[in-house]
Amino acid sequence: MVESSEKRDKFEFLDESISWWRRFSGEIGRRLREQLAIEPGLVKEKRWRYASHVTVVLLISLVILVGQWKMPKAEPPAVRPDHWLTISRSRGGAPEWEDNGSLIKAPVPHTTIPERPRLEVITYTVQSGDSVFGIAERFDVSPQTIMWSNGRLEDNPDLLGVGQELVILPTSGVYHIVEEGDTLEGIAQKYKVEVSAIADYEVNGLKEPYELTAGMALVVPGGEKPYIPKFVHRYTGPIPEDAAKGTGNFVWPASGSITQKFWSHHRAIDIGGYKGAPVVASDSGFVVYAGWDDSGYGRMLLIDHGNGWHTLYAHLDIYLVDYEQSVAQGQQIGTMGQTGNATGPHLHLEIWERNSKRNPLLLLP
Question: Using an 8 Å Cβ cutoff, are 345 and 129 in contact?
Fold first, then answer.
């Protein structure tokens, strides 16, 4: 009803405008005829004057009429509750989109494929330049997971060697090899997880009644293997009374970048550099070991500083001091290398206070 009323008002205004224009033009014509009858000589002059006036008035009227007239608004088609889009496909043909009354935008199919987790235990061959941290980051697991799953690495990640094959779990946790007498409850308690974490993990393929056999490998998601400190025995041979003694203040033994820091499973620091880079004694002391180490350290030196402290220098290319020799702080004792289990030239530095390994970064300037 409101729409019809607006349209009626617009047409009435238009009719009034046209009537007014007719009266106005008639009056102008009448005056022009009277003027011509009185002064016939002025026909040409008056005609152009009145014509210009009429033109101006006509333009003004046209502007007013256009300003009052409004184009009707286009209303969108009503959507009924039962409106839907139908997709039909003829045999062997392309999809045809059918609509029940309105123009709507056809959907554009887009499939997002989620990244699926790996559900298998794999192996990886160590390459030159690899580290436990780098491998862990590549496979999205914790460094501890790499170490717990690969024998000797648990004691020291520096035992990593080029060409070595590593077991890589699909998730962070522990890789447990079942032994005679093991139970799910006992394994779960050992690694501080719920029994369901092991039993329900798809990779393990366990089904009730959960019978375990010796040699079976189980992944313990989220499990933590308790750290058991390894007890070592230092050199106890005689040390000359005139042997150099340490100052208690340590200096940096080599220049380079810290490629691995001190943490729970790497109680040392690694200083990366180039083969042949000089290595100096971090403090004065007495060389109690100089030789090859079969556990993975390669060529190494161990210095007793005579005050309860020891320093160990591993993966040396060569050593320049001898067993049972006194050395001064800052004296060159060898060169950096890649001997033993090492993926690149670096110095492995350990600082011992009696039987405990201390963080070198807290003791060096």
Answer: no
Of 279, 273, 249, whose CA–CA distance to 338 is shortest?
A: 273
Show the domain range for 155: 122-221
Q: And the tokens for 335?
A: 């060169």
**Same domain? 358 vs 263:** yes
Q: What is the pLDDT of residue 153?
A: 80
The pTM of this model reads: 0.44
At residue 145, the pLDDT reads 93
Using DSSP bridges, classify how beta strands 298-304 and 278-280 pair: parallel, antiparallel or unpaired: unpaired
**Rounded Cα distance, 21 and 64, in Å:** 12
Residue segments in the chain with a per-residue pLDDT below the cut of 50: 2, 79-99, 231-235
Evaluate whether residue 204 is within a structural domain: yes
Find where tokens 């002059």 sit: 45
Helix (H) or strand (E) holding 15: helix 2-38
- CATH number for position 160: 3.10.350.10
Number of Cβ within a 10 Å radius of residue 251: 13
According to DSSP, the β-strands at 298-304 and 309-319 are antiparallel
| Averaged confidence pLDDT in the chain | 78
Q: 294 and 351 share a domain?
A: yes
Q: 125, 165 in Cβ contact below 8 A?
A: yes
Determine the pLDDT at residue 279.
Answer: 95
Residue 14 makes CB contacts below 8 A (sequence gap 6+) with: 65, 69
Instruction: Return the biggest CA–CA distance within the chain.
Output: 151
Considering its fold, how many domains does the chain have in total? 3
- Residue 92: the pLDDT is 47
Are 131 and 157 in contact, with CB atoms under 8 Å apart? yes
Residue with tokens 């496979």: 139
**Residue 163 and residue 343 in contact, taking contact as beta carbons nearer than 8 Å:** no
